[in-house]
Amino acid sequence: MKERHSLPAFLNLKTILRHEAGHLLMLWLLDRHAIGCIITEEGGLTQALDEPGEKETPYQRLLYAMSGMVLSSDFNLLNDLRQHAKQSDYFDPNSDSHFASEALPLIGGEPGIVLSLYQDIILRLGRRFSKAHIQATKLLLEKKKIAFDTLHGLFSHWDTEYGLVSRPKSDLVCRMIARAFRWPMPRGLFIGWDFKPLPEGYVAPVRMGLRELAEKVRRANCRSHIVAQDYD
């Protein structure tokens, strides 16, 4: 299968696995939940839980959109994105590159520079949490299809493994972004996803329980079914 307009045309299974594992790692770092992840001979798909009213910043969107191609070292996709960064219509509407190109104008700055900075940020995160990325890659190789309950357990394990139960992940990720862009950040306070200090004494919320997550996944699937019926 040829690649066209940055639709993933993976050359081998290893690339597929590392790509989707990259998305899973980034979902965890963005404090989001994964509904499932599947690997096929033609590619892979990672689905996040989209809750009504949930806000996503352009910075978060760009991190997620680029995480798969960066952590799988898919330089064809990255080069294609750089060449057509200002032409979101060039890319397939369902591709990572399309979502990335849509986020770029909201961030501002020269697209090529922003993309290079984000590639470096994701690589730094990938190195810092390489054990988690490898673990997700191996799990996908073994199972090919992972449901939300297994992913919930995996994300909870990473929270403990990396000591991020009490520290907001926004503080870690946003400080890394700010460092790359050379933005000053206050010390002694946690940083939120809006790059503003969280209240003094802020405590990171406890991860959603599996039963609650299962109910939210059920509702999300119901909404998807209703939307699909509307288009029939």
Keyphrases for this structure?
mainly alpha, 232 residues, 57% helix, Methane Monooxygenase Hydroxylase, Chain G, domain 1, 3 strands, single chain, 3-stranded antiparallel sheet, disordered C terminus, disordered N terminus
Structure description:
- By secondary structure, this protein is mainly alpha-helical.
- It is built from 9 helices and 3 strands.
- It has a single domain, classed as Methane Monooxygenase Hydroxylase, Chain G, domain 1.
- 57% of the residues lie in helices and 7% in strands.
- Strands 2-1-3 form a 3-stranded antiparallel beta sheet.
- Helix 1 packs antiparallel against helix 2 (58-71).
- It is globular and about 45 Å long.
- Residues 1-10 and 225-232 have low confidence and may be disordered.
Quick summary:
This protein is mainly α.
In terms of topology, how is this protein built?
Elements lengths: L12 H17 L4 E7 L2 E6 L9 H14 L3 H9 L12 H12 L3 H18 L1 H14 L1 E3 H14 L7 H13 L28 H22 L1
Antiparallel strand pairs: 1-2, 1-3
Q: Strand order of the main beta sheet, please?
A: 2-1-3
The average pLDDT score comes to 89
Poorly predicted spans: 1-10, 225-232
State Rg: 18 Å
User: How many β-strand runs?
Assistant: 3
Under CATH at level 1, the class stands as: Mainly Alpha
Percent helix: 55-70%
Along the chain, the helix and strand elements come as: HEEHHHHHEHHH
Please state the overall shape, judged from the principal axes of the Cα atoms: globular
Question: In the CATH scheme, what's the topology name?
Answer: Methane Monooxygenase Hydroxylase, Chain G, domain 1
Largest sheet: 3 strands, antiparallel
Terminal-residue CA separation: 29 Å
Strand content: 5-15%
Number of helices: 9
How many structural domains does the protein architecture include? 1
Which structural category do the helix and sheet elements fall into?
A: mainly alpha
CATH architecture: Up-down Bundle
